[in-house]
Input
Amino acid sequence: MEFFVAQILTGLANASSLFLVACGLSLIFGVTRIVNFAHGSLYMLGAYIGLTLMEVLPGHFGFWGSILLAGIAVGLIGVVIEMLVLRPVYRAPELFQLVATFGVILVIQDLALLIWGPEDQLGPRAPGLRGVFRIMGEPIPKYDIVLLIITPFIALALWWMMTRTRLGVLVRAATQDREMVGALGVNQAWLFTGVFALGSALAGLGGALQLPKGGADLLMDFTILTPVFVVVVIGGMGSLPGAYLAAIIISVLNVFGVTYIPQSTLVLMFIVMIVVLMIRPYGLLGREEVAGEHGQVGEPEEPIKPASARVRAIVAVGLALLALLPLFGGNFALVLTTDILIFCLFAASLHFLLGLGGMVSFGHAAYYGGGAYVAALLVTWTETPMELAFLLAPIGAGLIAIVVGWVCLRLTGVYFAMLTLAFAQLLWSLVWQWQEVTGGDDGLVNIWPAGWLNDNTIYFYVALVFSVGGILMLRHVAHSPFGYALRAARDSKRQAEATGIDTRRVQLLAFTFAGFMGGLAGALFVFSKGSVFPNELEIVRSFDALIVVFLGGVKTLAGGVVGAGFFKGVEDVLTRFEYWRLIMGLLIIFVVVVAPEGIVGSLRRAWRHFGPGDSQDAATTKEERRL
Amino acid sequence: MQRKTFLKGLIAAGALATVPLAAAAQQDPIIIGEINHYKRMAAFAEPYKMGIELAIEETNAAGGVMGRPLEFIFRDDQGEPGEAVKIAEELMTRDGAVMLTGTILSNVGLAISSFAGEKGYVYLASEPLADSLVWAAGNPYTFRLRASTFMQAAMLAEAAAKTDATRFATIAPNYAYGKDAVAAFKENLLKLKPDAEFVAEQWPALFKIDAGAEVQALERAKPDAIYNVTFGPDLAKFVRDGTDRGLFDGRDVYGLLSGEPEYLDPLGDEAPEGWTVTGFPWYDLEDGPDGAFVKAYQKRYDDYPRLGSIVGYMTVQSIVAALEKAGSTETEAIRAAFEGLEVDSAMGPITFREIDNQSTMGAYVGTTALEDGKGVMVDWEYKDGANYLPTDEEVRALRPAQ
Output
């Protein structure tokens, strides 16, 4: 019994930071509809700023004052981010803003490294709170007790603000229907800025409050991101009481998991999330999304059409040049181009899902890495010939996609996205943990192509044929009746069903097809590198693809491929510099702000604006004038 | 442009193997490709790089290698194995590197190793610890400098076997390194102390430790001794919560790598006392080659050396020794030179074993204590790695048939 109580108290104390960060994220999403990936970075900044302040300010007042000031400082940073980065892109396609927040992550990572240095910093103790209280004989750190008393007060204060103040009324109104709030004469811009600042301040507060239990390090931005997303989704996006409840459930369950099933630490919260979403598709206290709420923002998409003869000719010439690369490029040029081709296919498969299917997957790496692992496992354990393993890989990835798609397609919008993320994480945990079979973090090595393919030039042609073939096939499907049905299901599910389209089946098929193509890219990858590690299943890999698709242009057919090619190339150049993440982050933000329709979308607009007769120069001068 | 540098690299590589070329060509530097996680693990990679640069400066001041200056190209792989393989290709085929070295993370090391084995490039894995690098996934082109997980765990098991403790609990991050470290400790301890019993095994997620819960779970098992493999931010949280809740009172604690300045220093005055750890007590090193290294390092930089620094320094020493022995920059000559290579390193003489390409670099084992508000190792002893490796038969069984 004593042990049981001690466990629960530990869980409640752990819930504290998690709740603060999660409710900030939830607030921001509720009002602005922005999935703020940079929320973990704000949490990290809170920790670092709090730490710096605590070194300067002495005593009790200094400690608690530093925590408050850290919250305020991060709130102000939030204002800057919102005004400079997000405000210009509110009218961009749905979820485009998350790309901008990803740029912010990169910038903050390098700035934090510049300012605070690479070493982990241990947080100072709260003055007067060193040591433990004995509760029923079990030692509980004093600071834990303070945390679990403070948190409900902060939650209450937030609740009071939401229900009793004008700002709270506006926020709740905007969460329900932001167009209406705008129509009633509320200055939306400032409301958004205010909410973003409040959410950021809460993240900063969470970061500073956890200092005595840990410290500040450069990895904490990504470390907190997944649990926070899980909490927000389980609680229901936009619901504060939900976030509190979910933070407690996750934290307490985790404490018991650690004791009774120590191996469960990786998967527990994802399993909880999947179970909750199966029973309550909008989280514990979330409300059902009103149809159309997530509809297309901005101008309606123009219908796709087959490429003109001129475009075809240009592409054909480009491909021919690419095919001649071994004649004039060096060995490394071949390897780099192979990498880029593979990534283009991966991005194109996600683009198919996202652009044509309207299904935003946050876990597409599951099929890319899944395909790579299927091939690697076959080669390692059954000594399957490389050629066969290569062909079976996309099929394996497709099978994974069928299962995941079948479960996830019950949901829509952000909940769908989070559920795909949860499955990707489950697969990652499985691979990471099942060391006997998958090699765990040490991966599977010596997965080389068959002898006749094992040459950079020949493998380059393999990658060229399969990547370009795959991309052309994805394009072809977009123009097929199936592609039309898919877009119908995306734009208006009800009308599509009324015309006799089984939208669920169409979407599941599309999901599987995209997974299949992702798996093909994964198979190409594993044989080009000779090894595979759980990295290829990580969230970061899913985000890589997501970002290039958005930057390339979701609403264009070529967006995924162009974005992937452009950014993979840029990355290869940038990583040679010391502070390349800073430059990359700024570049992403720049593209987001200047070209909210993505690279392809904006080029097309510029092209149309000046008519096909105008030269490229006209477009650039216009760009310069605007700047 | 690309072609030109490629050709230059080829010429440089072949310069000594072929007939002596013009004097200018003789002065072309010997290039070594170094791949590491300069951003992802900056706190570890930077001191390592500083150690390398110190050794290069000393080498070149003394006339270089075979009359040619030594040069390293440092590249950041973002901690991604796939990226590292791409960079390895570029270093070897475009930049004219004669061999590869680097990495801290085991998975990246394994990726480069597999690539090097396939393409026939020499790779000296400086810091990755995974046992499989030289055993289960070993290949003739991969050599490893640092004492592996198995070796360091064996040193701690030896210390643990000398105590009366029989009930052991372990806590290790839930991934390959943590699992290998626990398995090696168990294997070696049970060999020396067959009545040892493992009463709890905790597996926190890497860098996501729930310290309070882990400490409670360990306490509940009432062990005599605890074997810790957590590191970095996890270690800080574990130590703080464990100290608060009295987990370490009256218990022997063994900490793998916990005594390395990289991990001990961030803990400041909360560094645990009385733990038996492997680490790097640079502050006590005065005589001998390691003392000379510390002096040179502190003279060159306004900083003190970390474990990574001396590993970086020894990496260059090993490469220089191999090149001198090979008398050539041809891959096959370098590979052959590394086999059985003896190096007078900053930690004393080490040998790259012919049987598995693992060097006999050892580790410092000691007890932690607090001095002037920071953690240090006392009563330490340098343990030669050669004594903590499995028997030759076992190694032969582990390594794939060539």
User: Anything to note?
Assistant: The first strand of chain B starts at residue 30 and ends at 36. The radius of gyration of chain B is 22 Å. Chain B has two domains: 2-148+286-351, 150-282+363-398. Residues 211 and 238 of chain B are 5 Å apart (CA to CA).
